[in-house]
Amino acid sequence: MAKIKMTGAGLRVPNDITVPFITGDGIGREIMPVCRKVVDAAVKQAYNGNRSIDWLEVMAGEEAFKQSGAYLPDETVAAFKEYLVGLKGPLMTPAGRGVRSLSIMLRQALDLYACQRPFRYFFGVTSPVKYPDRINLCVFRESTEDVYAGIEWPYGSEKGTKFGEFLQKELNEEKVRFPETSAYGVKPVSKEGTERIIRCAIDYALSHNRRSVTLVHNGNIMKYTEGAFVNWAYDVAEREYGTYLSSGRLRLTGITCDAFFQNAILHPEEYGVIVTSNLNGDYISDVFAAQVGGVGMSPGGNINYETGHAIFEATHGVASDIVGRNVANPSSLILAASMMLEYLGWKEAADLIVTAIERTLRQGITTADIADSYKHSSCVGTREFGEAVVKMMSI
Ligand code: NAD
Question: Is the pTM of this model over 0.85?
Answer without folding.
Answer: yes
